[in-house]
User: Fold dTDP-4-dehydrorhamnose reductase from Simiduia agarivorans.
Amino acid sequence: MQLPKLLILGAGGQVGQALQASSPGLYTLITPTRADLDLTASAAIEPFIIATKPALVINCAAYNFVDKAEQERERCRLINATAVARMAAACERLAIPLVHFSTDYVFEGKAAGSALYTEDEPPCPVNHYGQTKLAGERAALAQSRNLVLRVSWVFSEFGANMGSRMLAAACAGQPLRMASDQWGSPTYAGHIAETVWALVPALLRGEPGGLYHLSGLSAVMPAASRWDLAAGLVEAAIAAAMLPADYRVDATTQAQWQALFGVPAASRPDFSAMANDKLAARLGRALPHWQQGLAPCVTGLLAQS
Ligand SMILES: NC(=O)c1ccc[n+]([C@@H]2O[C@H](COP(=O)([O-])OP(=O)(O)OC[C@H]3O[C@@H](n4cnc5c(N)ncnc54)[C@H](OP(=O)(O)O)[C@@H]3O)[C@@H](O)[C@H]2O)c1
Assistant:
């Protein structure tokens, strides 16, 4: 029996690798690299997808350099917006669903302690990256069969990401200083992948997609600071004997951080934590909490070292 063919774009990134690592084995995964399909070559995207004839496309590719995006504006727009519109057009021609990822940076940010962002709240990005991601999610959502999952503060054992970079610095003996006044929803890439695999069968059956927040939060621990994530990773690394037991993460503020390291090129929301109730209702279960991703992330990093 031939398995349904799924095309994963950006398969070499952290979410793309997490999807491959947890693939349920029910599909043939087609995983082109940037050399096979460069998403800045907009005209090549539609023919590539149509020639591949997948049953579903998952786009994990993105231009994620939030500060550099303020200079590389056109490149960022080509990858995060134009390319997604081309993917959506190809999927429409094949009458197949597109699964696409967006970001909490479509929001301008609220005061600390506010209610978590829901899907009903109007986006208003404060940087170019966020503007291009918003354009991309709108292009994808033009077709009701497409699914857009907003994720945020993704950490994993794959590639260079916020978590792996922090742990690498700590293991190299450097002190870690993280802001405790910037709030969001950390999410383990393995949890993103398992959620996507739970959603794919319904999409393949023709059920509608829509817009959902895929965040690793719960009602018990609503929002996390950058310091919370760093301290959680360090604690897991200490438990795995990767770091000395007395290693601590220093808490700082964004203002202190900027005084030391310079003001970032792009504005960022102070509080952009997202509620995941809508997705939990669709799945019929709570999403895993980000803290449940700390140990597997550290174990995965250890296995690579
Ligand atoms: N990471 C986060 O904290 C975060 C937060 C919010 C939203 N998101 C969203 O979540 C999704 C997955 O993110 P991620 O963290 O897995 O990203 P990632 O690790 O940075 O991976 C991005 C992928 O995009 C590919 N790519 C970039 N430019 C390309 C181009 N011109 N042509 C073809 N491929 C290109 C990269 O290819 P190479 O392997 O060749 O570099 C890589 O495989 C993205 O939509 C991202 O915007 C992530």
In short: The pocket of NAP is lined by residues 10, 12-16, 34, 38-40, 60-64, 79, 101, 103, 151-154, 159, 161 (CB under 6 Å). The chain has a mean pLDDT of 95. The two ends are 39 Å apart (CA to CA). The first helix runs from residue 14 to 21.
